[in-house]
Design goal:
Order of helices and strands of chain B: HHHEEHEHHHHHHEEH
Helix content of chain A: 55-70%
Strand content of chain A: under 5%
Helix content of chain B: 40-55%
Structural class of chain B: alpha+beta
Number of strands of chain B: 5
Radius of gyration of chain B: 26 Å
Strand order of the largest sheet of chain B: 1-3-2-4-5
Largest sheet of chain A: 2 strands, antiparallel
Largest interface: A-B, 37 and 33 residues
Shape of chain A: elongated
Radius of gyration of chain A: 18 Å
Distance between the termini of chain B: 93 Å
Strand order of the largest sheet of chain A: 1-2
Oligomer: heterodimer
Chain lengths: 154, 254
């Protein structure tokens, strides 16, 4: 084992686990959208309303499909970022932060649609928004390293 | 010192195994959860009719039997009435809250009229009608159909415009009329009675019902009597004749 190998950052582990949770939620919602399931387990949640609304598609693609793709990308980046070779890779760190920020902004937009336009809450969508928020917070830990590396290492 | 840090770091770097185990555990749990829900293990509230084949019943009697009408009143009553109703239909709420209570009090309880309830949810128009009809059947399991029926119609405005399936409202009403909430919940959150309610719709269609509530009296479809107890009363008196124990007319739809 190479002595120079840096430690895998805990926050990336957190991002990976959260992204997996998000991926599962999105997959569940996508299965519903694709009619694999006829009814969502929502309790009184408004998943049917949300999923039947004009906002259920984004650029012609169902929102849960965007979720699946986004979380897969984040999961892939986080897992790659845990590999000793890539722990200090700045491109990867930037991509991870950018993807997490985009996912967070997209979730915020969808939550805004639910709250103000549809006035219906889908618990699973809210769960996904919480996951996206947590991923964003965890991804913010990329910042110090990204900012620090502008200066020469001491 | 830095060397020791690097060694520690290297040790951690090589020790991703526990993390992968956690990740695999989360993934496995999630996949199992989705599979469980997809395969219906958790129960999902059926909200749409199922297709009832035209050849499913040999004759009208079998169809009527399968529809499992819910009766109130004496089997020996000279007048047999049927009502095809939809819990989400405002006219049914008018009939159910203003006309039917009088019918029950003055004719059903004294044993002169027997009323049989059939579901006719207008699912094209009323989003929760099918679910409500199933909920009514779930209440009937606990012999509380009529109590549940009354509260569903009197509170119709509270749940009718819900943007999401008003299962919680139904549970609340069920509890109010003394239904065991747990059994009711598991009944509603399933596809139980989806077939029975669909059979009811088929029966209604075969009887050429084009609106609800549709009242039949001794086999004949009535008109606006549902909207006015005075009209209905006059019709019953006309049917039953001046002397109360008159023989009923044909009961071919019963």
């Amino acid at each position: 084992m190479n002595e120079e190998t840096p430690a895998p950052p805990l926050y990336r582990m957190a991002v990976a686990v959260l992204a997996l949770v998000g991926l599962l939620i999105s997959t569940y919602l996508l299965l519903y959208k694709l009619n694999v399931m006829t009814t969502l387990l929502c309790g009184t949640g408004g998943c049917e309303t949300v999923q039947a609304s004009p906002w259920a598609d984004f650029i012609g693609v169902p929102v849960p499909a965007w979720g699946v793709a986004g979380y897969l990308l984040i999961l892939g980046l986080a897992l790659a970022g845990l590999q000793p070779r890539l722990v200090d890779n700045r491109v990867l760190a930037r991509m991870l932060l950018a993807t997490a920020t985009f996912a967070f902004a997209f979730s915020a937009y969808l939550t805004w649609v639910e709250a103000f336009l549809l006035k219906a809450w889908c618990r699973w969508c809210v769960a996904s928004a919480i996951v996206a928020t947590l991923i964003f917070i965890a991804a913010l830990f990329e910042l110090p390293a990204l900012l620090r590396s502008r200066k020469p290492e001491g | 010192m830095p060397s020791r840090n690097r060694k520690a770091a290297a040790a951690r770097g090589s020790n991703l195994k526990p993390f992968y185990w956690i990740l695999a555990g989360v993934g496995l749990l999630g996949v199992l959860g989705i599979a469980w829900v997809t395969l219906g293990g958790s129960g999902q509230a059926a909200q749409q009719p199922v297709v009832i084949s035209d050849t499913a019943f040999a004759n009208a009697q079998e169809l009527v039997k399968a529809a499992q009408g819910i009766k109130i009143g004496s089997d020996n009553a000279p007048i047999k009435m049927l009502v095809f109703s939809d819990f989400q239909c405002p006219a049914c709420a008018v009939y159910g809250t203003q006309v039917e209570p009088n019918l029950k009090k003055e004719w059903i309880e004294p044993g002169k009229v027997q009323l049989t309830y059939y579901d006719f949810p207008l699912t094209q128009m009323h989003r929760w009608a099918f679910l409500a009809a199933r909920a009514g059947r779930c209440a009937n399991e606990q012999s509380k159909f009529w109590q549940f029926h009354d509260i569903m119609l009197s509170r119709q405005r509270s749940w009718s415009f819900a943007t999401t399936a008003p299962i919680k409202d139904f549970e609340g009403y069920a509890t109010e009329v003394g239904i065991d909430a747990r059994a009711f919940r598991s009944c509603v959150n399933s596809d139980k009675y989806a077939d029975v309610v669909s059979i009811n719709q088929k029966l209604g269609n075969q009887l050429r019902i084009n609106g609800t509530p549709a009242l039949f009296m001794n086999g004949r479809l009535l008109g606006r009597e549902w909207s006015d107890y005075g009209l209905l009363k006059a019709r019953i008196e006309q049917e039953i004749g001046p002397s109360t124990p008159a023989a009923p007319a044909t009961t071919n739809t019963q």
